Amino acid sequence: MENVFVMDHPLIQHKISMLRDCRTGTNEFRKLVEEIAVLMGYEAFRDLPLMEVEVRTPIESCRTPMISGKKLAVVPILRAGLGMVSGILTLVPSAKVGHIGLYRDPVTHEPKEYYCKLPESIEQRVVTVVDPMLATGGSAEAAVNFIKEKGGKQIKFLCIIAAPEGLERLHRSHPDIQIYCGHLDRGLDENAYICPGLGDAGDRIFGTK
Ligand code: URA
Protein backbone atom coordinates (compact mmCIF):
# COMPACT_ATOMS: atom_id res chain seq x y z
CA MET A 1 0.00 0.00 0.00
CA GLU A 2 1.41 3.34 -1.00
CA ASN A 3 2.12 5.63 1.97
CA VAL A 4 2.01 2.72 4.45
CA PHE A 5 5.31 1.71 6.07
CA VAL A 6 5.58 -1.28 8.38
CA MET A 7 8.93 -1.05 10.12
CA ASP A 8 11.15 -4.07 10.25
CA HIS A 9 14.12 -2.70 12.16
CA PRO A 10 15.35 -5.37 14.61
CA LEU A 11 15.59 -2.86 17.48
CA ILE A 12 11.95 -1.85 17.01
CA GLN A 13 10.85 -5.49 16.82
CA HIS A 14 12.84 -6.42 19.94
CA LYS A 15 11.43 -3.54 21.96
CA ILE A 16 7.86 -4.28 20.82
CA SER A 17 8.29 -7.88 22.05
CA MET A 18 9.33 -6.51 25.45
CA LEU A 19 6.28 -4.22 25.46
CA ARG A 20 3.96 -7.14 24.76
CA ASP A 21 5.21 -9.13 27.75
CA CYS A 22 2.59 -8.86 30.50
CA ARG A 23 5.42 -8.93 33.10
CA THR A 24 6.80 -5.61 31.81
CA GLY A 25 5.99 -3.01 34.48
CA THR A 26 4.93 0.62 34.07
CA ASN A 27 8.35 2.21 34.32
CA GLU A 28 9.95 -0.08 31.75
CA PHE A 29 6.88 0.08 29.50
CA ARG A 30 7.00 3.88 29.44
CA LYS A 31 10.71 3.89 28.59
CA LEU A 32 10.21 1.36 25.80
CA VAL A 33 7.36 3.38 24.26
CA GLU A 34 9.61 6.45 24.28
CA GLU A 35 12.54 4.53 22.73
CA ILE A 36 10.35 3.04 20.01
CA ALA A 37 8.99 6.50 19.22
CA VAL A 38 12.59 7.72 18.75
CA LEU A 39 13.39 4.85 16.37
CA MET A 40 10.15 5.26 14.43
CA GLY A 41 10.53 9.03 14.25
CA TYR A 42 14.05 8.62 12.89
CA GLU A 43 12.64 6.62 9.96
CA ALA A 44 9.50 8.72 9.50
CA PHE A 45 11.45 11.97 9.28
CA ARG A 46 13.71 10.72 6.50
CA ASP A 47 11.87 12.84 3.93
CA LEU A 48 11.86 16.15 5.82
CA PRO A 49 12.80 18.95 3.44
CA LEU A 50 16.23 20.52 3.74
CA MET A 51 17.60 23.89 2.76
CA GLU A 52 21.19 25.06 2.45
CA VAL A 53 22.30 27.62 5.02
CA GLU A 54 25.58 29.49 5.44
CA VAL A 55 27.58 28.39 8.52
CA ARG A 56 31.01 29.55 9.63
CA THR A 57 33.05 26.63 11.01
CA PRO A 58 36.28 27.33 12.97
CA ILE A 59 38.03 26.79 9.62
CA GLU A 60 35.88 28.56 7.02
CA SER A 61 32.36 29.36 5.88
CA CYS A 62 30.34 26.72 4.09
CA ARG A 63 26.85 26.04 2.86
CA THR A 64 25.30 23.13 4.75
CA PRO A 65 21.79 21.59 5.01
CA MET A 66 19.26 22.23 7.77
CA ILE A 67 15.57 21.29 8.07
CA SER A 68 13.52 23.90 6.25
CA GLY A 69 10.06 25.29 6.86
CA LYS A 70 7.98 25.91 9.96
CA LYS A 71 8.64 23.94 13.13
CA LEU A 72 7.11 20.46 13.14
CA ALA A 73 3.94 19.70 15.11
CA VAL A 74 3.46 16.51 17.07
CA VAL A 75 -0.10 15.68 18.03
CA PRO A 76 -0.77 12.83 20.47
CA ILE A 77 -4.23 11.31 20.56
CA LEU A 78 -5.12 11.36 24.28
CA ARG A 79 -4.29 9.54 26.36
CA ALA A 80 -1.90 6.80 25.18
CA GLY A 81 -0.37 8.99 22.48
CA LEU A 82 1.21 11.11 25.23
CA GLY A 83 3.68 8.28 25.84
CA MET A 84 5.27 8.79 22.41
CA VAL A 85 5.69 12.58 22.60
CA SER A 86 8.96 12.66 24.56
CA GLY A 87 10.56 10.29 22.02
CA ILE A 88 9.62 12.55 19.11
CA LEU A 89 10.82 15.63 21.03
CA THR A 90 14.17 13.91 21.62
CA LEU A 91 14.62 14.02 17.84
CA VAL A 92 12.95 17.37 17.20
CA PRO A 93 13.14 19.39 20.43
CA SER A 94 11.71 22.52 18.82
CA ALA A 95 8.48 20.81 17.66
CA LYS A 96 5.18 22.32 18.80
CA VAL A 97 2.80 19.97 20.59
CA GLY A 98 -0.97 19.88 19.98
CA HIS A 99 -3.47 17.54 21.65
CA ILE A 100 -6.59 15.75 20.48
CA GLY A 101 -8.99 14.06 22.90
CA LEU A 102 -11.76 11.82 21.62
CA TYR A 103 -14.48 9.79 23.26
CA ARG A 104 -16.78 7.20 21.75
CA ASP A 105 -20.39 8.41 21.47
CA PRO A 106 -22.42 5.82 23.43
CA VAL A 107 -25.27 5.88 20.88
CA THR A 108 -23.57 6.17 17.49
CA HIS A 109 -20.22 4.64 18.61
CA GLU A 110 -18.54 7.31 16.51
CA PRO A 111 -15.51 9.14 17.97
CA LYS A 112 -16.36 12.68 19.17
CA GLU A 113 -13.83 15.39 19.92
CA TYR A 114 -13.79 16.64 23.54
CA TYR A 115 -10.50 18.49 23.29
CA CYS A 116 -8.52 19.78 20.35
CA LYS A 117 -5.77 22.35 20.58
CA LEU A 118 -3.33 22.58 17.70
CA PRO A 119 -0.33 24.84 17.09
CA GLU A 120 -1.00 27.92 14.95
CA SER A 121 -0.27 27.88 11.20
CA ILE A 122 -0.95 24.14 11.17
CA GLU A 123 -1.27 24.28 7.37
CA GLN A 124 2.43 25.11 7.08
CA ARG A 125 3.75 22.37 9.37
CA VAL A 126 4.54 18.70 9.01
CA VAL A 127 2.08 17.26 11.54
CA THR A 128 2.96 13.94 13.18
CA VAL A 129 -0.02 12.29 14.89
CA VAL A 130 0.98 9.67 17.45
CA ASP A 131 -1.04 6.87 19.05
CA PRO A 132 0.61 3.57 20.05
CA MET A 133 -2.34 1.38 18.99
CA LEU A 134 -4.17 1.61 15.66
CA ALA A 135 -7.10 -0.71 16.44
CA THR A 136 -10.41 0.00 14.64
CA GLY A 137 -8.93 3.16 13.12
CA GLY A 138 -11.95 5.23 14.25
CA SER A 139 -9.99 7.63 16.50
CA ALA A 140 -7.11 7.96 14.06
CA GLU A 141 -9.49 8.70 11.19
CA ALA A 142 -11.35 11.30 13.28
CA ALA A 143 -8.12 12.91 14.50
CA VAL A 144 -6.85 13.29 10.94
CA ASN A 145 -10.27 14.69 9.90
CA PHE A 146 -9.97 17.40 12.61
CA ILE A 147 -6.41 18.28 11.64
CA LYS A 148 -7.40 18.56 7.97
CA GLU A 149 -10.47 20.68 8.91
CA LYS A 150 -8.08 23.07 10.69
CA GLY A 151 -5.92 23.23 7.56
CA GLY A 152 -3.32 20.46 8.13
CA LYS A 153 -1.89 19.21 4.83
CA GLN A 154 1.32 17.27 5.44
CA ILE A 155 0.34 14.59 7.94
CA LYS A 156 2.18 11.54 9.23
CA PHE A 157 0.60 8.97 11.56
CA LEU A 158 2.85 6.88 13.82
CA CYS A 159 1.60 3.83 15.73
CA ILE A 160 3.56 1.08 17.43
CA ILE A 161 1.11 -1.74 16.69
CA ALA A 162 -1.62 -1.76 14.06
CA ALA A 163 -4.49 -4.13 13.35
CA PRO A 164 -5.16 -4.72 9.63
CA GLU A 165 -8.71 -3.39 10.11
CA GLY A 166 -7.49 -0.04 11.46
CA LEU A 167 -4.69 0.32 8.97
CA GLU A 168 -7.02 -0.30 6.03
CA ARG A 169 -9.66 2.10 7.38
CA LEU A 170 -7.17 4.93 7.98
CA HIS A 171 -5.47 4.42 4.62
CA ARG A 172 -8.81 4.23 2.77
CA SER A 173 -10.07 7.46 4.41
CA HIS A 174 -6.79 9.33 4.11
CA PRO A 175 -4.64 7.83 1.34
CA ASP A 176 -2.57 11.04 1.23
CA ILE A 177 -1.09 10.66 4.73
CA GLN A 178 1.95 8.56 5.52
CA ILE A 179 1.23 5.80 8.04
CA TYR A 180 4.13 4.21 9.95
CA CYS A 181 3.57 1.07 12.06
CA GLY A 182 6.07 -0.74 14.23
CA HIS A 183 4.26 -4.05 13.69
CA LEU A 184 1.14 -5.28 11.95
CA ASP A 185 -0.71 -7.70 14.24
CA ARG A 186 -3.25 -10.43 13.45
CA GLY A 187 -6.52 -8.59 14.08
CA LEU A 188 -9.07 -7.38 16.61
CA ASP A 189 -11.00 -9.39 19.20
CA GLU A 190 -14.70 -8.87 20.02
CA ASN A 191 -13.78 -5.98 22.38
CA ALA A 192 -11.67 -4.25 19.71
CA TYR A 193 -8.39 -5.17 21.43
CA ILE A 194 -5.50 -5.90 19.08
CA CYS A 195 -4.38 -9.58 19.09
CA PRO A 196 -1.81 -10.50 20.26
CA GLY A 197 -1.25 -6.78 20.98
CA LEU A 198 -0.06 -5.58 24.35
CA GLY A 199 -3.31 -4.89 26.20
CA ASP A 200 -4.45 -1.35 26.99
CA ALA A 201 -1.56 0.92 26.10
CA GLY A 202 -2.88 3.87 28.14
CA ASP A 203 -3.27 1.77 31.28
CA ARG A 204 0.19 0.27 30.85
CA ILE A 205 1.86 3.66 30.24
CA PHE A 206 0.14 5.39 33.14
CA GLY A 207 -0.08 2.47 35.57
CA THR A 208 -3.88 2.63 35.80
CA LYS A 209 -6.05 -0.46 35.94
N1 URA B 1 -6.15 0.38 22.41
C1 URA B 1 -5.25 -0.25 23.21
O1 URA B 1 -4.66 0.36 24.08
N2 URA B 1 -5.06 -1.58 23.01
C2 URA B 1 -5.69 -2.27 22.06
O2 URA B 1 -5.44 -3.47 21.92
C3 URA B 1 -6.61 -1.59 21.23
C4 URA B 1 -6.82 -0.27 21.43
TrEMBL record:
Reactions accelerated catalytically: UMP + diphosphate = 5-phospho-alpha-D-ribose 1-diphosphate + uracil
GO BP terms in the entry: UMP salvage; uracil salvage
Domain of life: Bacteria
Free-text activity regulation comment from the record: Allosterically activated by GTP.
Binding-site list for uracil: I194, G199, D200, A201
Cofactor(s) needed: Mg(2+)
Domain Phosphoribosyltransferase: start-end pairs: 6-208
Pathway where it operates: Pyrimidine metabolism; UMP biosynthesis via salvage pathway; UMP from uracil: step 1/1
Family matches, as Pfam families: UPRTase
Keywords, in A-Z order: Allosteric enzyme, Glycosyltransferase, GTP-binding, Magnesium, Nucleotide-binding, Transferase
GO cellular component term of the entry, any: cytoplasm
MF GO annotations: GTP binding; magnesium ion binding; uracil phosphoribosyltransferase activity
Enzyme nomenclature, EC number: 2.4.2.9
Sites where the protein binds 5-phospho-alpha-D-ribose 1-diphosphate: R79, R104, D131, P132, M133, L134, A135, T136, G137, G138, S139, D200
Job of this protein: Catalyzes the conversion of uracil and 5-phospho-alpha-D-ribose 1-diphosphate (PRPP) to UMP and diphosphate.
Name the record gives this protein: Uracil phosphoribosyltransferase
Protein's organism: Qiania dongpingensis
